[in-house]
Amino acid sequence: MDTAARPSFVAAPNIETARLRLRAHRPDDFAACRAIWSDPQVVRHIGGKPATGEDAWRRLLTYAGLWSLLGFGYWAIEARHSGEYVGDIGFAEFRRDIDPSLHGMLECGWALARAAQGQGYASEALAAIETWRRAHFPESRAVCIIAPANPASIRVAEKAGLCRWCETTYHGEPTLVFTHAPLPGPDA
Fold it and tell me: Residue 72: which pLDDT band, with cuts at 50, 70 and 90?
């Protein structure tokens, strides 16, 4: 992706869906962010290691920094009926050491508090950010990596129209890579 062609956003733009508000992260999200990312059930398929307070604070800083550096990033997911921060969703370019390379693709990811899981929030939020991506980065391919043992996230990805591209290894663990249009296999 050409950095000169990237739209410039200082913070995540607000997106509203029927049940959710996607918004920029704020410093007062720290306690909820820490609670989500320190829950072993939430992270069991996302690295498997519960976050410390330091990790959660760094995550909030990263979320804010992505927008100013790349023009895209992560949103806080807020339940509209309660105003409660229930998770994170967005795009990044993490420059992972993974084969095949994801360089130049917008890697999407999401995580929800345990109490917010199973309600369709991830699918609703992913559909909303995909609409945003197509409007602002239509030339960029969306991609996501998912642990094979995470059928819930696989269903969310497939519901959003992402299809399995390949299986690889990331940090020594089996990893599935999903994207929109089929790409040639990594050996092609």
Answer: very high
Give the pLDDT score at 8.
Answer: 65
Going through 30-80 in order, the beta strands assigned E by DSSP cover 74-79
Distance from C-alpha of 85 to C-alpha of 33, rounded to nearest angstrom: 8
CB hemisphere CA count around 122 (13 angstroms): 20
Question: Taking Cα atoms as reference points, which of 173, 125, 157 lies closest to residue 165?
Answer: 157
Cα distance between residue 71 and residue 91, in whole Å: 10
pLDDT at 11: 87
174 strand-pairing partners: 169
Between CA 140 and CA 134 the distance in angstroms is: 8
Tell me if 142 sits within 8 A of 106, measured CB to CB: yes
d(CA 112, CA 76): 10
- Identify the structural domains of the chain with CATH numbers, from first to last: 9-138 (3.40.630.30)
DSSP 141: P
Q: Please give the span between the terminal C-alpha atoms of the chain, in angstroms, as a whole number.
A: 22
Q: What angle do CA 146, 128, 100 make, to 5 degrees?
A: 30
Tell me, rounded to whole angstroms, the distance of Cα 131 from its chain centroid.
14
Q: What is the pTM of this model?
A: 0.90
